[in-house]
């Protein structure tokens, strides 16, 4: 079996428009896991927002991993061990929040229970809460509140404004943070050098494997490094054009079993030969 690790973005990739894993995709993933493929749920979501999907796929029993915060943390579902951890620089929490306020974006982060932010009723904050199925806690001063280690800050705002905000943020924090847009209204801000591919590389090395053993599926801008890094990079039919251009293969969209079809083609059929 060539592909021993399968990395899956969640929103727009593993889950359909209703945020559900379709039966065909679930069956293909369970068969792959039972044949020894290690499934890694790789998302910008916080760990608490990924756990329900990991439970649906029984990754605690099948030995998969949760890659949360765009690579800020990798958790072994079976043992509960943290395999990779990249803390956000505490001295940059205040400057990022100040930047967000100035450019009419809203910054949020997470605690053990859910989202923490200064503007709970923002529609894009509420969308992040809906996607993850977690509550929102409003605080008067986010930097003052965050006295514990975090892995990322998420900036949310109007999709019309966010490309310009991202460009300005790349300039403001050049050489200090890794910055990616995961949705038209989300900008992920991470410790420098942290993204899905870099953390997957560390995981593969721990497993004594290489990129040639990795198949990765994604649709968004923050999936691009992972798609380029993997031996088999699979773009969803609904992926943004740069992801499709970088991929080895373009599958169906997330509403038509794109992940399941790709797993059947490149993992399950390979084993059948």
Written overview of the protein:
The chain has 2 domains: 161 residues, Rossmann fold (3-Layer(aba) Sandwich); 102 residues, 2-Layer Sandwich (Hypothetical Protein, Haloacid Dehalogenase-like Hydrolase, Chain: A, domain 2). The strands form 2 sheets. Strands 5-4-3-2-1-12-13-14 form an 8-stranded mixed sheet, with helices on both faces. Helix content is 36%, strand content 22%. By secondary structure, it is α/β, with parallel strands linked by helices. It is globular and about 55 Å long.
Key features of this structure:
single chain; 273 residues; alpha/beta; Rossmann fold; Hypothetical Protein, Haloacid Dehalogenase-like Hydrolase, Chain: A, domain 2; 2 domains; eight-stranded mixed beta sheet; six-stranded mixed beta sheet; 11 helices; 14 strands; globular
User: Whole-Å distance between the termini?
Assistant: 10 Å
| DSSP summary: helix tally | 11
* Reported CATH architecture of the largest domain: 3-Layer(aba) Sandwich
Q: Under the CATH scheme, which class of the largest domain?
A: Alpha Beta
CATH topology of the largest domain: Rossmann fold
Q: How many beta-strand runs?
A: 14
Radius of gyration: 18 Å
Question: What does the oligomeric state look like here?
Answer: single chain
Question: What helical percentage do the residues reach?
Answer: 25-40%
Give start-end ranges of low-pLDDT stretches: none
Biggest sheet: strand arrangement: 5-4-3-2-1-12-13-14
Share of β-strand residues:
15-25%
Global morphology: globular
Mean pLDDT, nearest integer? 95
Give the tally of structural domains: 2
What series of H and E elements makes up the topology?
A: EHEHHEEEHEEHEHEHEEHEHEHEH
CATH homologous superfamily (4th level) name of the largest domain: HAD superfamily/HAD-like
């Amino acid at each position: 079996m060539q592909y021993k690790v399968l990395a899956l973005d969640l929103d727009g990739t593993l889950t359909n428009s209703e945020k559900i894993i379709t039966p065909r995709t679930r069956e293909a993933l369970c068969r792959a896991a039972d044949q020894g493929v290690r499934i890694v749920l790789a998302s910008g979501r916080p760990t608490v927002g990924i756990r329900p999907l990991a439970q649906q796929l029984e990754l605690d029993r099948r030995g998969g991993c949760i890659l949360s915060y765009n690579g800020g943390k990798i958790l072994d579902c079976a043992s509960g061990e943290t395999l990779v951890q990249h803390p956000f620089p505490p001295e940059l929490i205040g400057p990022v929040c100040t930047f967000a306020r100035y450019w009419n974006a809203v910054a949020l982060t997470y605690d053990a229970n859910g989202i923490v932010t200064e503007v709970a009723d923002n529609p894009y904050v509420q969308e992040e809460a809906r996607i993850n199925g977690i509550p929102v806690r409003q605080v008067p001063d986010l930097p003052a509140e965050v006295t514990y280690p975090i892995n990322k800050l998420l900036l949310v705002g109007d999709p019309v404004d966010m490309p310009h905000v991202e460009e300005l943020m790349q300039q403001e924090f050049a050489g200090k943070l890794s910055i990616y847009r995961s949705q038209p209204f989300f900008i992920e801000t991470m410790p420098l050098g942290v993204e899905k591919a870099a953390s997957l590389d560390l995981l593969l090395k721990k497993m004594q494997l290489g990129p040639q053993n990795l198949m990765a599926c994604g649709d968004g801008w923050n999936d691009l490094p992972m798609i380029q890094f993997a031996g088999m990079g699979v773009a969803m039919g609904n992926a943004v054009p740069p992801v499709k251009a970088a991929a080895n293969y373009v599958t169906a969209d997330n509403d038509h079993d794109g992940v399941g079809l790709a797993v059947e083609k490149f993992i399950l059929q390979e084993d059948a030969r």
